[in-house]
Amino acid sequence: MTRDLFPGFDSHWIDTEAGRIFARAGGEGPPLLLLHGFPQTHAAWHRIAPALARTHRVVCPDLRGYGWSSVPRDGEGHETYSKRAMGRDAVAVMEALGHVHFGIVGHDRGGRVAYRLALDEPGRIERLALLDIVPTLVAWERIEAGLQPAAHWDFLSRPAPLPEEEIGRDPLPYFEGLMRKWSGKGELDIFDPAALESYRQSCNEPNRIHAFCEDYRAGRTLDREQDARDLAAGRTIACPSFLVWSRGYLEKAGAEAPLESWRRTFAPRIDGASVDGGHFLAEERPDETLAALQRFFG
Q: Rounded CA gap, 296 and 128, in Å?
């Protein structure tokens, strides 16, 4: 039996438009929502959530299509896996747990959900922390300009069923290869075995593989279009915002400094801090990541 990575945290199954969203919640204090990235689950937070729970009510859900959450059928135009739709799940989860206003931390795809929600519903989000991302629109502009490798962004967002079929022939080597590549050491031993097992279970299932691809298809289309409309309208994130980025991953991904990507687009007053290591900050560099978040959230 896999050990519990969140001892003392409650487990919740919360009904949303996507079906049921699974979440762990623990601690007392101001509510703080943690949203994981690809190809992970809520287990990504296990090294920092207990410390954050000493001062906050911490909620760690699985995004729709990931982990133990439902896998809704994709609708027209990839809307089902848009970050706006995933943001509605986040609101439903927090409201079901009694929180109308809350802080939010998002890593990778979860970060894209987080900043989209902060733009869409500015009255809800009190403070926003993003881990190791630039805006979706900026990332696609870099890819198309040849300043950033297309890599998995292009592959996963290709029309169905091409990527699903290719990955489905042997899913674990594909996903584990990505995690090795994005880690600072190039190895899987940065992950706790129980967390790695959670990721393997989520990745090794055809419906979830399709959901992952739809997540990236939405990023290439709807998410990017929504970013472009907001940028043209001059909309920015209203709440205090903070970026934690990796010197070994995001800083190498483009010529522009990560903070500058946000300051010229959606977060003109964003502050931030860099951390050594690869992409998986909360697992590779939990002490430094936690310290940065604690400074921001108090």
A: 9
pTM higher than 0.85 for the full model?
A: yes
Distance CA(12)–CA(145), nearest Å, equals 44
Residue 5, domain member (yes or no): no
Catalytic choice (42, 46, 107, 279) = 279
CATH number of the domain where residue 155 is located:
3.40.50.1820
CB 104 within 8 A of CB 33: yes
Q: Within a domain: residue 98?
A: yes
Query: Per-residue pLDDT tens for 230-263?
Result: 999 999 999 999 999 999 888 876 678 999 999 9
Q: Exactly one of 108, 215, 223, 230 is catalytic; which is it?
A: 108
Q: Is residue 1 part of a domain?
A: no
My answer on whether omega of the bond before 206 falls inside 30° of 0, hence cis, is: no
Q: Is 279 noted as a catalytic residue in this protein? A: yes
Residue 232 burial by Cβ neighbours in a 10 Å radius (0-12, 13-18, 19+): exposed
Unique residue bearing structure tokens 């522009």: 256
Looking only at the bridges linking them, the beta strands covering 57-61 and 102-107 are unpaired
Residue 108 bears catalytic tag: yes
- List the 241-246 sheet strands across, edge first: 10-16, 19-26, 57-61, 31-35, 102-107, 125-131, 241-246, 271-275
**Total of domains in the chain:** 1
Q: Quick check: 39 and 64 in contact, CB under 8 A?
A: no
CA–CA gap between residue 117 and residue 89 (Å, rounded): 10
Domain assignment present for residue 4? The answer is no
Q: What is the mean pLDDT of residues 28-43?
A: 98
CA distances to 1, 113, 261 from 243, in Å: 36, 15, 11
Show the domain range for 76.
10-297
